[in-house]
């Protein structure tokens, strides 16, 4: 199976853990209608400040509850937005006043978050937005809330991207030294996305080479994502989002370590009225589909402005909790298998353990091609019960059984789990 070329960061734990929690939290939780609300509704920074910064006070913030729910869902790492595109900082940064310690809440949010998740055994990563709609030196561009302001071009004359790049450099250096994250998730570059003569932004604007050199110097083993507009090899992981890859992700024809990030609903940030919450079946199948193609799944929650996860998020996490409690063996440390999955199934594999995830329950037999004579034992993961190898009986006399075909005998009724999994122990 594919073995991506080693990169500078240490992804050995990452490809074992497979499953993480993304947390998108910021001032946008107050309007509660998507983390891009400031751009979508073109809310000027000073108005956004007055409306939301001055009212940010998550009185119910309890990261231990979030961490417990993540552990119960069997998530093994977490990535928190330290600063999203709005520019608001969730920690007491020395480089800005636009930070949580200056809001009515008045306290750093990241330290208790990191402590809570590490106490539950999860690794902690940080997301850092390259985009910053608040910073006075961030040039207005295609995504900026002031993009259609009549004076936008003139305003940009006094905005100096090199000063913003220095700000970014200093803040990320501060985050690495203060919180020692296992993952740094930067977002995102858009070179060539020009708008009304205002250019997009890429590696020259961020000074990405210098920025990444600092990151690697301070945290040589950190897992770094791929959104700095640098050559593919500069990243440790590649990060398709809101899409379900159906094969191992390759970049320039080379298989890479990859992580799909997805949302429970249609928004990363808390969105009160967004109703496209995925079903438990979809959530479980997204995880299986991802690992079956050799990837990780980073599933997102968007906390409320009170500092809580809403009931919809807990319900969605509960779907993972209930299924992973019985089936995590088919996810942790597993990857794509070279065997051909049967109809309506997905395969994951770890050494001589081959896991058959059954999406559509067949009538009495499961036909696996290429496995005849290769399996020593078969069992269900949900209850450990043996699954009949080499199913026999007069019924099979009615069909032609291929030389290398393995036919498993199944109960007529589907087991009462969202996706039943059969563990095959290979000879
Ligand atoms: C996109 C969105 C951003 C989100 C990110 C997560 O870049 O713009 O809001 O944080 O996806 O991958």
Topology:
Layout: H1 14-17, E1 19-23, H2 37-40, H3 45-52, H4 63-72, E2 77-83, H5 110-119, E3 123-129, H6 152-156, H7 161-179, E4 183-187, H8 203-206, H9 208-218, E5 223-224, E6 250-251, E7 254-255, E8 259-263, H10 280-292, E9 296-301, H11 311-327, E10 345-350, E11 353-358, E12 365-369, E13 375-380, E14 405-409, E15 421-426
Parallel strand pairs: 1-2, 1-9, 2-3, 3-4, 4-5, 8-9
Antiparallel strand pairs: 6-7, 10-11, 11-15, 12-14, 13-15
Helix pairs in contact: 4-5, 4-11, 7-9, 10-11
Alpha-D-glucopyranose is lined by residues 24, 35-36, 187-188, 241, 261, 268.
Defining traits:
427 residues, alpha/beta, Immunoglobulin-like, 2 domains, seven-stranded parallel beta sheet, four-stranded antiparallel beta sheet, 11 helices, 15 strands, 18% strand, elongated, binds alpha-D-glucopyranose
CATH class of the largest domain: Alpha Beta
CATH architecture of the largest domain: Alpha-Beta Barrel
Please name the CATH topology of the largest domain. Answer: TIM Barrel
Q: What is the chain-wise order of helices and strands?
A: HEHHHEHEHHEHHEEEEHEHEEEEEE
Q: Give me the oligomer status.
A: single chain
Q: Briefly note the structural class of the backbone.
A: alpha/beta
Overall pLDDT, averaged?
Answer: 97
Rg computed from alpha carbons, rounded to a whole number of angstroms: 24 Å
What's the end-to-end separation, in Å?
18 Å
Strand order in the largest sheet: 5-4-3-2-1-9-8
List all distinct small molecules, including ions and cofactors, that are bound in this structure.
Answer: alpha-D-glucopyranose
Q: Beta fraction of the residues?
A: 15-25%
Query: Which spans have pLDDT < 50 for at least 5 consecutive residues?
Result: none
